Amino acid sequence: MSADSFQPPPSTNAPARRSTDSPCDLSIAGLAPQASPSPAVPLVVVSREQLQALSFAHGHTEIFPHHPGVDAAIVGAQRHGITTWIATRAASTGVWLSWQWAQLESSVVMLLNPLNLRSNMEVIDTQDKRLNAIESMIHFNRVIHRLDWHRVIQRANGTRSA
């Protein structure tokens, strides 16, 4: 991958940080990595309605092979990684959503932790008040479950859905 191509945010299981972004840490359990020391990427403020109206396209998927004894949190996983999806409308250029996944068998790919998502979006309510982490997670998970990301991961891994 060239130095100027898109780099996804780092994952908690990634061997090294490679992102130049400093995404919002949305983890309520403290599982998300700390922001990288590079300059912060500005957050994009979106309302709940704007978020649900956004269209996303696959940006990048990074695959990490399973290492027995190292990835204890992913028991039985064949592979795991991080995938990043990018908003496709011109008005939302640069908006992204990223999460970790695990492939348990060829036809089973799962979101690793629905409360450990990363994004450069800040979601607000109708009174322009910032949503808390759990409220944001609910809305981000709604977006993720609309996407055909399982098939993208399976294709990247050379497997097919059942």
First CA to last CA: what distance?
Answer: 31 Å
Topology pattern, helix = H, strand = E: EEHEEEEEEHH
Number of separate helices? 3
* Outline type: elongated
Unreliable parts: 1-39
Question: Helix proportion of residues, in percent?
Answer: 10-25%
Explain this structure.
With 162 residues, the protein is of the alpha+beta class. Helix content is 17%, strand content 28%. β5 (96-105) and β6 form a beta hairpin.
Summarize the entry for a quick read.
The protein is α+β, with helices and mostly antiparallel strands and 162 residues long. It is 17% helix and 28% strand.
Throw out a few tags for this protein.
162 residues; alpha+beta; six-stranded antiparallel beta sheet; two-stranded parallel ribbon; 8 strands; 17% helix
List the helices and strands and how they pair.
Blueprint: E1 24-25, E2 44-47, H1 48-53, E3 56-65, E4 79-87, E5 96-105, E6 108-111, E7 117-119, E8 121-124, H2 133-146, H3 149-156
Parallel strand pairs: 2-8
Antiparallel strand pairs: 1-7, 3-4, 4-5, 5-6, 5-7
